[in-house]
Design brief:
425 residues, alpha+beta, Beta-lactamase, eight-stranded antiparallel β-sheet, two-stranded antiparallel sheet, 11 helices, 18 strands, 25% helix
């Protein structure tokens, strides 16, 4: 049997971490091909990073065959107050919000209310007749009267086609992807007000020239693409985006702590966000704000617990169902978890190693040996700027969650290694 609790020490204080949760099915690790002894290396790895001042703490979950075999809180959620990390701690998901938004789109796809090939302009007319920015190769000639032309790094040409929904899902849209039009995008962002909704703001993006022809490249769109998808969900469903997620995903999956805003009564559960410096961890004075009471960012605005997000991940691992509640068809989940961009992401983007593709809202491991990754082929997942990380593998029936609040990619490899070495069959 799995022991109910384990006690470990941190900074002179006992940290009690229960390995079971009443709402989650648990199992002895050996019953699903995982070593109990080797699983302890996850905690050891995390605490090495805590001692090195890489992170303050973490919550980690490992499940196989639908059974949780590891669920621990490690370290601290706030250094100044020496507050131990809690399993119900609230984490800013940042870009780990994107796969949730992708799932919302796929729910509407299954209902026949949209197609992945639909142009965005079908739902938001301002995106019709897109333009593509082309960089000037030489200084602009002066006007006929000799007056210098206004400086501009680009001119525009008509796009060969409008952006499609699948372009937004796969970062192949060219919309606000940090390219030559970024200064124009930042002006639009600065003009966004606290009362703006998706309905107010997203149409303004339609006038923004694209950084490249849709579908011809992979370049990350941090906010605009998936916020636009959130607006499409609103238009097609007739609900606000936050309501749609509550009723169609978070409610059925029993994810009560996931949403865009934290109630005042739960404010103390938020994990402090830190950044690494040469002298240690430094609390972010002003945390980036992706969302608000009126603006629901599907790109980066969600807040959740590790347990809640595990339920979303396990639903995908199960082929779209959890606890008898079917969210998606297995075929639709397979579509989401399959490479959708050919070789555009495979070692070509400057972000992805060789051996990795991109599905709908997240990356897909095509060849773990080529990618030098410590997780099996077919794994799908994504991370967030503040350190949230997760993946699922349907063949191996694995779902794992690793939540921290300090941006770090190197620790993801260490976590994957600690998980992988614990698998014994």
């Amino acid at each position: 049997m799995i022991p109910a609790c384990c006690t470990r020490a941190f900074a002179g204080l006992p940290l009690i971490c229960c390995l079971t949760a009443a709402s989650l099915p648990v199992s002895k690790p050996e019953d699903v091909g995982i070593s109990s002894e080797r699983l302890q290396r996850i905690h050891e790895m995390v605490m090495r990073h805590v001692a090195a001042h890489d992170i303050s703490g973490a919550v980690s979950i490992v499940a196989r065959k639908g059974r949780v075999v590891h669920y621990e809180a490690h370290g601290l959620m706030d250094i100044d107050s020496n507050k131990p990390m809690a399993k119900d701690a609230l984490f800013r998901l940042a870009s780990s919000s994107k796969p949730v938004t992708a799932a919302a789109i796929l729910i509407l796809l299954e209902e026949g209310k949209l197609k992945l090939t639909d142009p965005v302009s079908k739902f938001i007319p301002e995106f019709r007749d897109s333009k593509v920015a082309i960089e000037f190769k030489r200084p602009a000639l002066p006007m006929a009267d000799g007056t210098p032309r206004a400086a501009s790094p680009y001119y525009t040409v008509p796009a060969s086609r409008d952006i499609a929904i699948i372009d937004l899902l796969t970062h192949g849209s060219g919309l606000a992807s940090g390219g030559i039009t970024d200064a124009d995008y930042q002006k639009i962002m600065k003009a966004r007000t606290p009362t703006d909704t998706l309905a107010d703001f997203i149409p303004r993006l339609g006038a923004l020239p694209l950084d490249f022809e849709p579908g011809t490249a992979w370049r990350y769109s941090p906010l605009a693409a998936f916020d636009t998808l959130g607006r499409i969900v609103e238009i097609v469903s007739g609900m606000s985006f936050d309501r749609f997620l509550r009723e169609r995903l978070f409610g059925p999956l029993d994810m009560p702590d996931t949403g865009f805003n934290v109630p005042e009564k739960d404010a103390a559960r938020k994990v402090t966000i830190y950044r690494r410096t040469e002298t240690g961890l430094e609390k972010l004075a002003n945390s980036p704000v992706f969302t608000g009471s009126a603006y629901f960012s599907g790109a980066g605005g969600l807040i959740s617990t590790a347990e809640d997000y595990y339920k979303f991940a396990q639903m995908l691992c199960n082929g779209g169902i959890l606890n008898g509640k079917r969210i998606l068809s297995p075929w639709t989940v397979d579509l989401m978890l399959s490479n959708q961009v050919g070789d555009l992401f495979n070692g070509q983007s400057g972000r992805a190693p060789k051996g990795v593709g991109f599905g709908l809202g997240g990356e897909v491991v095509l060849n773990a040996a080529d990618a030098r990754l410590r997780k099996p082929n077919g794994s799908y997942g994504w991370d967030g700027a503040f350190g949230t990380y997760w993946w699922v593998n349907r063949k191996e029936q694995m779902a794992v969650v690793f939540f921290i609040q300090t941006g770090s990619r190197s620790i993801q490899y260490d976590f994957d290694n600690a998980v992988s070495q614990a698998v014994i069959e």
